[in-house]
Design brief:
Blueprint: H1 3-21, H2 30-45, H3 51-64, H4 67-74, E1 85-89, H5 99-107, E2 111-115, H6 123-135, E3 141-143, E4 152-156, H7 159-168, E5 173-177, E6 181-185, H8 192-203, E7 213-219, H9 224-230, H10 241-256, E8 262-263, E9 268-271, E10 281-287, H11 290-299, E11 304-309, H12 337-343
Helix pairs in contact: 1-3, 1-6, 8-9
């Protein structure tokens, strides 16, 4: 199949997603009904995958699956001349998190050998089936329960899992991804609107993604109340039982240990130097000079996916509210997946 047909199929897939998200419930069609049923099944099987968050993830892909976006991204790479079998061990922390790896492998002229996460097993097969239908030819992919016959592997897991994977795949070309998280640096001059956008970076997907902010750096005189006021849009998050369980557990632990924290009834703010925070907790620290923050970020670079900050602070950062809107050329762990696939 030509790359042009693959791109055309993806564009039509993007249009399908967009049509579904904007469909009039009164005039539903068979495909949209199947789409809706899949989302509901996914939410039942994995309560973290609410309809809202699944639709949010789909909306991001609808924006990316266009002729201009795909052609611009792929113009920097050459498809492999030798087709290889690339094993994919997909994560399931947020909806469709493995879709980028899958399309990267197929568009690179390789065979995607996919081990789905048990937490996210509905949407991706459906989207691949529709892509194949729109491309009017067979796509090179297959689903497996266990990786056995492959030439290279791309796997995502926790730090503990990654150590096992690195050993298991030591004789293969591989990308093994570990735990990462994201941070935000405030100057104190942020507007209320910017802080509300920051709330999206923190709470979207319940904070389960590597692009979710779990650590804040704030000036010494910054008032915590400003954060709580800006977070109110997400106050309904506490109604999710799994999130609420984490909130109540961490609150009880801090009370028992007589640790200081700030509480607005749906998230706990704790002054803590740890980069990773527990679910429903946001760590923060105060700085007197921006050099302190620079030193910390440099020391913890391998664990940081992205930095959210005003560009005027001088960091290699993205703007407030952009953490959950990665582009096609935004790669997990900052490893260029397409370049890896180009040379295997």
């Amino acid at each position: 199949m030509t790359i042009e047909k693959q791109i055309s199929g993806l564009c039509r897939l993007g249009a399908l997603i967009n049509n579904f998200l904007n469909a009039d419930p009164e005039n539903d069609n068979e495909v949209n009904a199947e789409f809706s049923a899949l989302l509901k099944k996914s939410e039942i099987e994995n309560p973290w995958f609410t309809l809202e968050n699944q639709k949010f993830a789909l909306s991001q892909w609808a924006e990316l699956l266009t002729e201009s976006q795909l052609s611009g991204w792929l113009s920097h790479y050459q498809p492999s001349k030798t087709q290889k079998r690339v094993g994919l061990i997909l994560a399931g922390n947020i909806p469709m998190v493995g879709f980028h790896d899958v399309i990267s492998v197929i568009l690179s002229n390789h065979i995607a050998v996919i081990k789905l996460s048990s937490k996210d097993k509905r949407l991706l097969p459906f989207l691949l089936r529709k892509w194949q239908e729109f491309a009017e030819s067979s796509l090179s992919y297959e689903f497996v329960e266990k990786l056995e016959d492959f030439d290279a592997v791309i796997a995502t897991g926790s730090n503990n899992t990654a150590r096992y994977l690195e050993y298991y795949f030591k004789d293969h070309l591989s990308i093994i991804r570990k735990n990462r998280t994201s941070v935000a640096v405030l100057s104190g001059a942020e507007t209320s609107a910017e802080l509300e956008l920051l709330a999206e970076d923190i709470f979207r997907y319940y904070g389960l993604g590597c692009r979710n902010v779990t650590r804040l750096f704030i000036p010494e005189d910054f008032k915590i109340d400003r954060l709580f006021e800006s977070f109110l849009k997400f106050k309904g998050i506490i109604n999710h039982h799994k999130y609420a369980n984490n909130y109540e557990y961490n609150r009880a632990v801090y009370l028992l240990n007589q640790e200081q924290f700030w509480d607005n009834n749906f998230v706990l703010l704790k002054e803590d130097e740890q980069l990773f925070s527990p679910l429903a907790v946001l760590h923060f620290s105060r700085y007197s000079a921006i050099a302190e923050v620079q030193d910390f970020l440099r020391e913890n670079e391998k664990d940081i996916q992205t930095i959210v900050a005003d560009p005027g602070l001088g960091f290699d950062s993205i703007g407030f509210g952009e953490a959950q809107h990665p582009g096609l050329d935004t790669y997990a762990d900052h490893v260029d997946t397409m370049r890896f696939l180009e040379v295997i």
